[in-house]
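Fold sample X.
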Amino acid sequence: MARLQLAGSRRLVPLPRRAPRLAPLLLPLLLALPDGARADCPCKVPALCRPMTHRPDFEVFVFNVGHKTWKYYDWSQITTVVLFLKYDPELMCHAHAKGARVVLKGDVPVKDIINATFRASWIAQQVKLAKTQYMDGINLDIEQDVAHSSPEYYALTALVKETTDSFHHEIKGSQ
């Protein structure tokens, strides 16, 4: 083992000799990961962690509310799964293997989105969550009443546009 002596110190710090030899081997492996796939991809096939980019002619949404009922879906019909509860990496891998998108459910109190700073922060959090979980976008599911021409009305319009722009910029092919 090589030793490093710090100037003005009598302490010796052992340095492993094999580490420099591993770095050139690891770099090509990291570079070989498909776009959108990272080393922490939960799928057996890392390519399944890439965002789905195809655009179907029509959409068939499934709103997943948990458990493992997704194992019994007719995957030949489904284009998008919206997760209403806890993230399930097994579901994400399976859906991507079947060519279906998996998206977040986006819900936020309408009174809060009037504040542009809050709105931007909420959108950034959703994008980060979607990217961390290898998801393909977001389904805004806001079911609160909004009066026509109210501040909430215009804020909701801004939320939809800003969310769409952010997701499309950050996740290729996202919804």
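Fold sample Y, listed below.
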Amino acid sequence: MPTLHIGTYGKDGGAGLVPLTLAIDGTLACGDAYAEAENASFAASGNGLVYLVDEREEGAVNVLCREGESWRHVARVPSGGEEPCYVSLSPNGRRLAVANYASGSAVLYGLDEAGLPVSPPALFRNDGSGPNAERQEGPHAHCVRFSNDGTALYMVDLGADQVLRLPLTEEGFGEVSVAWTAPAGSGPRHLLFHPDRPLALLLSELAASLTLLSEGPLGFETRQTLSTAPEDFTGENLGGHLVLNADASRVYVSNRGHDSLAVFALADERLELLQHIASGGRHPRHFVLLEDERKLVVAHEKDGCVAGFDVAPDGTLLGPTGSIRVPGACSVVA
């Protein structure tokens, strides 16, 4: 089984990047933390490297290289904004994008042949707000994703209820346009593209909803929207994380408040709910799907619980099969 790592928030007692071993029977065990990777709330892997955000007021991206069971710190660059929460690699591995939540900005770095960021980066900052005065007082970039063909970057703005399209040029960004306007107050959080069809999936945090979008020349159109929590649940719930499996037949979502994982089938360009299962902790913020091992591992932000699940042949989840507490847990790095 592969060794995973748990990103942790320092403000919640996190010690850095914590190695996690997952046994076939579901048993979880932790090793000594790598302290130089703080506040690693999101990561992207490629070029033989791991790029991790350092989510703090003066945001940064740490670049690490695995060396056996440890890490070597290769580079650290500014994120170009405050509280970076998402990082993404272009399909060809030559560009790195970062979403800065607090400053509502997207930053684009070129990467050299070794995969290291080259300064200066391109920067785009959005304007706008939403009806939720507490969460949408201004722009809040929560996700950046490259199009499958690598010609554009999409920025998901929770604060402005927008998905923006940023065309890519040699110098950085072209003319920015609104690709999709979310329902007012829904707070879009994460976006994923279908690998083979002109479809995308969008998870909204404040509305706790999953939307299937079709991609056209002028942007996205809504095909279907479903609640991520059970229809009879009346408590507060926030969408957490979104994963699409390799053959694009199953969609996994975490619910923070209902504290569950939801599994949806995606077929014939329609979504169908298959399962809700308790996530094993409080506020499941992030998780990874290990398809070869048929496992899923989820990190809970409010109690530091990291829980493992088995993935059944039909894609539904069984468990939790094991759990362990990691102070400050906020992400799982595969």
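Sample Y note: Residues 3-333 form a domain with the Methylamine Dehydrogenase; Chain H fold (CATH 2.130.10.10).
Also: The mean pLDDT is 98.
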